[in-house]
Amino acid sequence: GPDPAGEERRLRALGAEFRRAARGGLLTFHGPGQLLAYPVLDLRRLGLSLRAYVGALEAAALGLCRRLGLPAARARPPPYTGVWLRGRKLCAVGVHCGRHITSHGLALNCCTDLTWFDHIVPCGLEGTGVTSLSEELQRHVTVDEITEPFLDAFEEVFQCTLTSHEESIG
Question: Per the CATH hierarchy, to which homologous superfamily does domain 23-169 belong?
Answer without folding.
Answer: Bira Bifunctional Protein; Domain 2 (3.30.930.10)
